[in-house]
Known about the structure:
By secondary structure, the protein is mostly helical. It has helices at 2-36, 43-50, 54-61, 64-83, 93-110, 112-125, 127-141, 143-155, 163-184, 190-205. Helix 5 (93-110) runs antiparallel to helix 10 and helix 8 (143-155) crosses helix 9 (163-184). The longest helix is centred in the first third of the chain and has 35 residues, at 2-36. The radius of gyration is 21 Å and the shape is elongated. The N and C termini lie far apart (72 Å).
Amino acid sequence: MRGSQVSASSARKSEKGGAEVRDRIYASALRQFSHRGYASTSLREICEDARTTKPMVYYYFGSKEGLYSSIVNEIIEEMAAAVRSVPGPAGAEREEVMAYCQRYIDHFFANEETIALVLREVFGLGGAPMQALSHGLGSLVRQPLDEILARGMDSGAFRKDDVEGCATAITGILDMFILAHVFGHQVMDRKAILRQAGYYLRGFSGC
Length: 207
């Protein structure tokens, strides 16, 4: 019986220790990538900062690219949580869509440095990080908007149409301004962005 207790205790310590190592690697990678960029950051530097070894990076993340992809996924999950809200009453879906757009833009403003860095790196890297970004934006982040539009079509607030296509059009407007800011250094005007989204929504709702 005592042997079983010792084994269970050791397993818990091992699991906790493994989680701590993984967290240290992740935190170190985020710092190093933020300061130096993906290409200029080596796994050796990450491991030294995280007080671990390359085999542990490979064990938890598979590769340097896999490590960066995990950072992209984490950023996407945070954004998905930020844009989600409690569903409103039937017929109020137009206001919900505009509120979603506001949260989308506000989250970018609140995390601009990190998100802009990731966008610059990911567009240059392609591969797994780009796939992680595209999939995350197209599923997790856009999902709440899909749900609002679907409810709006059912309630009559919006005309019947392709939900995913309409949601992609709306987020595409928001992303257009974000990318123009990140890559073209254009000033982001929050009111102008929301006004453009509103133009699409008015046509879509037939108002």
